[in-house]
Fold this sequence. Notes:
Layout: E1 2-9, H1 14-21, H2 26-34, E2 37-45, E3 48-55, H3 58-65, H4 69-81, E4 82-84
Antiparallel strand pairs: 1-3, 1-4, 2-3
Amino acid sequence: MRIALHTRVREDRIEEYEAAHRAVPAELTAAIRAAGVTSWTIWRSGRELFHLLECEDYGRLLGELERLPVNVAWQARMGELLDVAHDYTEDGAGAGLAAVWEL
Length: 103
């Protein structure tokens, strides 16, 4: 399945956010892949971040990562940098952006 998400980086933390994503922990990327993600891309327009991920089951992905220590640490770090964060709770499974048009 494909999931599109929207988050927002704090205006004064853009460079720090991008630097963090140049050094995502290998343990985290391995856990994301093990949870069924085959691709995840983030685009930035100003402060707005748009994510597109492909995974087997988004709800399962969130469930597997929500309490995983490496992800908890990463989300705490991202929480310092974001005004709108990625929701890893059960409620987050419905947070994907609605598709308006597709070719």
